[in-house]
Amino acid sequence: MVRDATTAGRLFSRVRVVSIPLSGYSRFGLWTAGFTCEAGDDIRYLTRSQAKAVDLPKHDYWLFDSRKLVMMHFGQDDRFVGAEIVEDPATIVQHNYWRDVARHHATRRDEFVTEHEQRYDQR
Question: pTM for the complete prediction?
């Protein structure tokens, strides 16, 4: 699906904010990202300390075509509890700005793996 969409000119892009050292779940996500990146998905990584340094929000969200904002909600145990479609134009613009800041400071998946591979080898 990703390969077909990117071949047709659609952009798939995301920034994942991760804690260092990486959890097992984050390492698994990094591994699986290799496959979708090969298909054309632009996945980048930002550490939590980097995200904090550039004043990014702590909440998770998705933007679709820079026009549709979906806020992701999680419980105390970090389990997904639901999503909310936000239609307020000013809120959507703010989240587009945060997306651009995150992409600017984030590292592409393959570079992130190279930079942190010693940490993976030690686990």
Answer: 0.85
Inter-residue long-range contacts of 8-13, CB under 8 Å, 24+ positions, other chains counted: 11/42, 12/36, 12/40, 12/41, 12/42, 13/41, 13/42, 13/43, 13/44, 13/103
Output the CA–CA distances (angstroms, integers) from residue 101 to 1, 7, 14, 33, 105, in the order listed: 27, 26, 12, 21, 6
Above 60 in pLDDT, residue 123?
A: no
Which position has the token pair 């990703």? 2
Instruction: Give every CB contact of residue 94 below 8 A, 6+ residues apart in sequence.
Output: none
Would you state the structure tokens that stand for residue 78, as one six-digit string? Answer: 């970090």
| Per-residue pLDDT tens digits for 6-54 | 899 988 899 999 999 998 889 999 999 999 999 999 999 999 999 999 9
